[in-house]
Design a protein that fits this description.
Radius of gyration: 26 Å
Shape: globular
Structural class: alpha+beta
Strand order of the largest sheet: 12-11-10-6-5-17-18-19
């Protein structure tokens, strides 16, 4: 305790010295143009952070009106909002144009990293505040010299900042996932008057009309409706353990991820989980470059102020990524997991609430933004793999589970409330009836050596997926009968294909993958491995190739076909068509609306040796493929740390047929309709959609 007090006093001294220096920067003229304007403007942002910090500490914000909170929230994010972004230093294109190519990208990175102060100020994390202020001052001091600093001098300052403080940033990130005592978000959820929408601003996240309207709508629902939503979510998590033969009673924590506005449902879910003996761990989407994963937001989040800003800074790691840094980061991870070994073993895994309905985002690819070199791409892919292995060592894969559910947000349009209620119905469909119908598909698929998928009406798909061989059909099966547990809503059968013999072309006219749009996407497979790909988003083949390579291949030269599935949720498909929202649905729902194919690891990665059974008692034996089997000799070659589902919609399907060893064929789907006896009921919603 005494040591903690001394550290706190020391940090406060450093903080006051740093702020005193930053006040001076706003008035002095010791840096030449155009850099003086950059540093003064950035210093003004830091002074705003000082004001907010003081207001929170003094309790002033507790008395803010809703309007005052909204004005503060806008001021915090104003500079990177779409209307201002063209002239923001957070925009690497603008920074390079104004500050020059040598310094523009580096100083744009610095500006983006400093914006993490918003989070640290709201959470009152003094150490992170101090080191970011000192980083800014150190870079500023370099520009006070008679000659401009060398680019490498600034790059090295950033490099050693990231390396030296990775122990703070990386360790904190792991602790947030494991330790329920880090309860900043949980206290907001459980202690706030959720009818008083000022609570939304206590996070420090950007709050748009969407979060306000979502919260208002959830507040208008009855307790029964909220319970139904929360129960589906938490029961899915519990059943995931049950179906996987895992003992949930050994777990003490569950990681909750959600978007602001859903607190009423999340509060009820926390109460449900507590009755299961689980406490929540809730971390926000990362703000430090060390912990970010490209443009994706993993954790709880508010609105995204500007998706282009996130995309522009998706590869900022290029400034510092090398073998030495990766080694340092992995050492910190292992040390932290050792420190929290017990908490890690007791952690059950994530329970995720996704949202959909935002305007589709098509990024502009800017040459001024950082890109990883080819060497760095390989380093990052290897680092991600080793980090996954390390995590699995402590949060043991075969002992944990997860669940994911999705709901729309108001941006989906004027029919938001109607679509929301339709989504609730989809999430609570009769899984037993689906289980019966899906078993018909599985019985047919188990007779095959391969499945042939053919597109129609401009869809160029012509793909043969090879299947594992059954040795005892009375006790074994190839496909999992997936109902609404970990992967809500109900509606798919899936397998890990055999790679040898899986050949052909997968084509989608338009699809959203990892929140990004792809036009005219074509992927070619040879013996189950990606051997080529193209899309039509950009003018040149090189740009299209790089886009897919970065965001779907995740810098791997090739990936296996890790999953083949047939989605059966025609009710979700009907909803998508009725409200014209197919382009806005998350993959969680979209994958249930046709056959889908996953690039990367299998659905059973890290858990291949754990037996899994369908409701009929048969063991699902197709949990491995030729790549994942390498884990027994060389784990580094067995996993890729990614799994991206790509769905062909029903209306683009010519047929799906099972190919038998004797040359016979069993037709499952023809011209977008289920034709296998016993599955025709699934065509009902499709017929309604046509009507």
């Amino acid at each position: 305790m005494e040591q903690d007090n001394r550290k706190e006093v020391y940090l406060k001294e450093r903080y006051h010295l740093a702020m005193e220096r930053i006040h001076g920067i706003c008035t002095e003229e010791t840096v030449s143009a155009p850099f003086c304007i950059y540093f003064k403007k950035t210093a003004q942002f830091l002074l705003l952070m000082e004001e907010v910090k003081n207001a929170i500490e003094n309790g002033e914000t507790e008395l803010y009106t809703l309007q005052q909170w909204q004005e503060l929230n806008v001021s915090l994010y104003f500079d990177i909002l779409p209307g201002q972004y063209d002239t923001s230093y957070g925009n690497p294109a603008y920074a390079a144009a104004v500050l020059g190519k040598t310094y523009g990208k580096l100083l744009s990175f610095l500006y983006a990293e400093l914006r993490g102060l918003i989070v640290y100020v709201f959470e009152q994390r003094l150490e992170e505040i101090v080191i970011l202020l000192e980083l800014f001052i150190e870079v500023y001091n370099c520009f006070e010299q008679e000659e401009l600093p060398k680019r490498r001098e600034i790059q090295q300052i950033i490099y050693w900042f990231v390396s030296d403080y990775s122990e703070l940033f990386v360790a904190r990130r792991i602790q947030e996932n494991l330790d329920p005592e880090l309860d900043f978000a949980a206290r907001i959820i459980m202690d706030s008057d959720l009818n008083d929408l000022r609570y939304l601003y206590r996070y420090g996240e950007y709050v748009s009309e969407s979060e306000l309207k979502t919260a208002e709508f959830l507040n208008s629902l009855s307790d029964g409706e909220i319970s139904a939503m929360a129960d589906t979510y938490t029961e899915g998590y519990r059943i995931g353990f049950l179906m996987g033969g895992k003992d949930i009673s050994l777990k003490k924590t569950v990681n909750l991820r959600y978007q602001l506005g859903f607190e009423r449902m999340i509060r009820r879910a926390i109460e449900n989980f507590e009755r299961m003996g689980l406490r929540p761990t809730i971390y926000r989407a990362a703000v430090s470059t060390v912990n970010k994963r490209q443009h994706l937001r993993i954790g709880y989040t508010g609105a995204v102020p500007n998706k282009q800003f996130d995309y522009d800074h998706r590869a900022d790691q290029a400034i510092y990524l090398d073998k030495k840094f990766i080694k340092r980061k992995l050492e910190v991870m292992r040390k932290t997991y050792e420190t929290y070994r017990t908490l890690a073993k007791e952690h059950g895994g994530p329970a995720v609430v996704e949202v959909f309905g935002e305007a589709p985002f098509v990024p502009a690819v800017k040459p001024e933004a950082y890109r990883l070199s080819e060497k760095q791409q390989k380093l990052l892919a290897q680092a991600d793999h080793e980090a996954s292995q390390l995590t699995n060592e402590y949060i043991i894969g075969k002992e944990r589970s997860f669940t994911i559910i999705a709901f729309p947000v108001p941006e989906i349009g004027a029919q938001f409330e109607e679509i929301f209620r339709e989504t609730v119905k989809i999430n609570t469909l009769d899984y037993k009836r689906y289980q019966e119908i899906q078993q018909k598909l599985i019985d047919a698929l188990d007779q095959g050596t391969a499945v042939h998928i053919q597109g129609k009406d401009g869809n160029r798909t012509d793909l043969t997926v090879a299947l594992t061989s059954l040795t005892d059909p009375k006790k074994e099966t190839l496909f999992e009968n997936c109902v609404a547990d970990v992967n809500i809503p109900v509606g798919e059968v899936f397998t890990s294909p055999r790679l040898a013999g899986t050949n052909g072309v997968l084509h989608i006219r338009q699809v959203y993958l990892n929140e990004l749009n792809y036009m005219d996407l074509e992927i070619r497979f040879e013996d189950g491995m990606v051997c080529g790909y193209s899309c039509g988003n950009f003018e040149t083949p090189e740009e299209n190739h790089q886009y897919f390579f970065e965001n779907v291949m995740h810098h791997h030269d090739t990936l296996p076909l890790g999953e083949f599935a047939i989605g059966t949720n025609t009710t979700a498909y009907r909803m998508a068509k009725k409200y014209h929202i197919a382009d806005k649905l998350p993959i969680l729902i979209a994958e249930k609306m046709g056959p889908h194919f996953a690039l990367g690891d299998t659905c059973y990665s890290w858990q291949e040796d754990t037996p899994v059974y369908n409701a009929d008692g048969k063991e699902i034996i197709a949990r491995d493929n030729e790549v994942s089997l390498l884990r027994k000799e060389d784990p580094a070659s067995a996993y890729f740390g990614c799994h991206t589902d790509i769905t062909i919609p029903y209306e683009e399907l010519g047929h799906i047929e099972v190919l038998r060893e004797d040359g016979g064929r069993i037709l499952l789907i023809e011209n977008g309709r289920f034709v296998l006896p016993g599955t025709e009921e699934l065509n009902g919603p499709l017929a309604e959609e046509m009507d």
